[in-house]
Design brief:
Elements lengths: L9 H27 L8 E4 H11 L6 E6 L4 E4 L1 H18 L5 E9 L4 E7 L22 H4 L10 H11 L16
Parallel strand pairs: 2-4
Antiparallel strand pairs: 1-3, 4-5
Helix pairs in contact: 2-3, 3-5
Length: about 190
């Protein structure tokens, strides 16, 4: 708000406006991606999932405190690459955001079935409370306390996991959140 009694400094107001503008741009971009996800024009093509996951992880900014391990056999499959990229990118970004603040550990793994891939992104963060396991995949959803957990809370709109769910459902898949030790699946 520009009516901040603490500061009459124009630079402070301009900095806040810039931050709010960046956040709004990010939100609108996320909303556009969400709305147009099912219209992605790419066709199924051969995808080397090992190369894809490696490229995604190498492209993401992460603090030095976060270590990411790629585990499992990542096969070559025929699929739509853009939705797979969106799923992996957003899950790993989310894991980076919420991994342990002092010693972040993330494990990205793949198990190939006959006609499906079981992708798992595990981090050593605080986890999602049971009552929010399904709602975290809704658009613009951020849990209470996100601001103190997130590395840059203003940059995150609550659309990442919604994009994941929409992309996965677009290829007739499913996505869920679980705590360590939970059985696989919803």
């Amino acid at each position: 708000s520009l009516d901040d009694p603490e500061s009459d400094d124009p630079k402070t107001h301009i900095d806040r406006l810039r931050a709010q503008s960046r956040r709004m741009t990010t939100m609108l971009s996320s909303l556009l991606a969400y709305a147009s996800l099912d219209r992605l024009a790419d066709c199924a093509q051969p995808v080397d999932t090992q190369e894809l996951v490696t490229a995604i992880i190498n492209s993401l900014h992460r603090p030095d405190r976060v270590v990411i391990e790629i585990a499992g056999p990542w096969p070559k499959v025929t699929t739509r690459e853009a939705p797979l990229d969106i799923v992996l990118r957003n899950l790993v970004e989310n894991a980076i955001q919420y991994a342990d603040a002092e010693n972040g550990r993330i494990r990205v793994s793949c198990v190939a079935g006959a006609r499906e891939l079981l992708l798992s992104v595990d981090d050593n963060g605080v986890g999602v409370p049971d009552e929010h396991r399904d709602t975290v995949f809704n658009p613009f959803t951020r849990l209470e306390g996100d601001d103190h957990l997130a590395t840059n809370a203003d940059a995150h709109t609550g659309m990442g996991l919604a994009l994941v769910r929409r992309a996965v459902q677009g290829v007739s898949g499913s996505v869920w959140s679980q705590q360590s030790g939970d059985p696989h699946g919803p």
